[in-house]
Amino acid sequence: MSAEATNPDAVPEVRSGAAAPVRRRGRTRLDLRRLGRAALLGPASRDRLPDAIGHVAEAHRAHHPDADLGVLRRAYLLAESSHRGQMRKSGEPYITHPLAVTLILAELGAETVTLTASLLHDTVEDTEVTLDQVRAEFGEEVCFIVDGVTKLEKVDYGAAAEPETFRKMLVATGNDVRVMSIKLADRLHNMRTLGVMRPEKQARIAKVTRDVLIPLAERLGVQALKTELEDLVFAILHPEEYERTRALIASHAAELDPLPAIAESVKGVLREAGIAAQVHIRPRHFVSVHRITLKRGQLRGSDFGRLLVLVGEDADCYGTLGELHTCFTPVVSEFKDFIAVPKFNLYQSLHTAVATGGHVAEVLIRTHQMHRVAEAGVIALGNPYAPAEPVDTGEERVDPTRPGWLSRLLDWQQSAPDPDTFWSSLREELAQDREITVFSAEGGRLGLPAGASCVDAAYALHGEAAHGCIGARVNGRLAALGTRLADGDTVQLLLAQDASSGPAPDWLEHARTPAARIAIRSWLREHPGHTRMPPAAPRAPGPMVGARGGGGNAVADLPDATVRLAGCCTPVPPDPVAGFVVRGGAVTVHRVQCPAVAQMRSLGRTSVAVHWRATADCRVTLVAESFGRPHLLADLTEAISREGADIVSATVEPPSEQRVRHTYTLQLPDATVLPTLMRAMRDVPGVYDVSRV
Question: pLDDT per residue over 309-368, tens digit each?
């Protein structure tokens, strides 16, 4: 494997017509032409590995000392004999391609099954070898992975071949993440040798790599492949910016770099603290330097790289952080803890920056295991399916490493039968590079892209039933459907029971996930004449009965006094009440917890004892708050009628943000039915709260 693939700090060679970057010292790039000749000549003897895959065997044994190399020998011999006579456009024997792809994966620590499938990944597509032959010779797992990376024929699919190939590959990745590992390594080697293609074809392949493969590498945590792919794409699509960045890096190489001195200081601090650590300088790759240039303008000498501190245990990471922040000046705004809160792509590290000697150095702190996962992502996890069992490819495999974004992708792609819809939605999904976790009211966890709204949560939780969503509560508070969710929010979706309910067109403005957008557009296409009905027709506010009504069942201990129930709190039996004499000698009765009681006492109003008559009927004013929907007013009045209450008056305020406020003054046959009545009103679909005035 080349230095670029094995060492993420090395700058890749670009064969795209742009000037080649300055190569950093590292391992010598393998001579693929020599490997090709060795491939054609075959092994020197039957009992040894072919010379052409000696590098693969060496890299594989470095990570897996006990690996059985016999299966790799058999896979290589089948691949070499099948591809014999085929040549790449670069002029090399075709077998050099699967060899290079396999070497990339071996250097990243892939296990034997992945390497076997990698050697064979083009045989079914480009030779006479069949999947049945692969299955019979190498088993079900290798056959499943090879099938997953095999392209669909343009003869059968035409222009839809590429998006449908990616759909097939992603579905297979949902069952086995090793499928995408091989695809990423395959694309990396193709990008390295892309210079032999026509410029327009280079640009087309680079754009797909930028929009789809690089985000997938990021999500699967394979940073070693992602960074080199970014630089190769950068050189093809932005040659002028690439050349400026190359010149900037070259000019920095001639200047005094402050990072080595800072690294020595960090080593000394950790040595004195008794923390066993390795300190490395990681030069930034081209795209990273370009981004820093756009962000800061003039670069400092320490901006061209970062310090990487590798320790043995998680606790040593925090111990290292404490020592650095004690002995140097920390830049607090640069601190991030991705160990306590890992990224959704498995990445863990502590990020900080310290100032010393007039320079600011960024520092990454992680364990050796964290570093392996940070560089190789899912490839570093080995075989997630051990112990291996026969796989029925007709059923979905359970992948313990499947991340939430992949599960969402597999869900919505089923609703996008049109290749163009799938292709555009896939690019939109992958363009969202952060993820949040929200919780349902029942305690379940839900992963959503950053910026997702209640609309997205509704479709993620309820599927097509979300068409009838009429509102949401976020962290217990009522929220509009367009409300953006934050990491850690608790969301409760309120669904209408009316089967005719459907999404409004403006929901598309709030939907960030493809699942929500596809479902909304599909419903709107199927119901072209349907528009979500406006909230219940408002009436002009009318006089509220009860504000100056009679005393009902209340009796004041004041002879011949007129008793009135206060409209501010509408007391009913058996509420504890208090009476106050007001102008004209009338007694107004309030519930004792009514704020007006404290105000009356502060004004020195005369308090009068009040009690309830033995008769049971009473009058009360209730406020129902709801989301607007068709037939809401009829359903509420029916619920009130079922409980035996008479409506004295009703007022519906003008709607606001699809919310409607109803005020009812009711005559109850018995005060004891009030709790049951309020529950019945709350049970009406769309009503989220009922309270006394």
Answer: 999 999 999 999 999 999 999 998 889 998 987 887 778 999 999 998 888 999 999 999
Order of strands across the sheet that contains 646-652: 646-652, 659-668, 618-627, 687-692
Instruction: Give the tens place of pLDDT for each residue, 540-564.
Output: 333 333 333 455 677 777 776 777 7
pLDDT score of 390: 41
664/261 Cα distance (integer angstroms): 78
Q: Name the pairing type of β-strands 587-591 and 563-565.
A: parallel
Could you list the active site residues? 125-126
Contacts 24+ apart (CB under 8 A), 159-165: 159/419, 160/419, 162/208, 162/423, 163/419, 163/420, 163/422, 163/423, 163/426, 164/419
Question: Under 8 Å CB-to-CB from 175, ≥6 apart: which residues?
Answer: 144, 148, 396, 397, 399
431 dihedral zone (left: phi>0; alpha: psi -120 to 50; beta): alpha
Residue written as token pair 């699809």: 658
pTM to 2 decimal places: 0.65
Encoded amino acid at 34, one letter? R
Tokens representing 668?
A: 């109850």
- 204 Cβ contact partners less than 8 Å away, ≥ 6 residues apart: none
Residue matched to tokens 């049951």: 676
CB atoms within 10 A of CB 318: 16
Output the six-digit token pair for 663: 């005020």
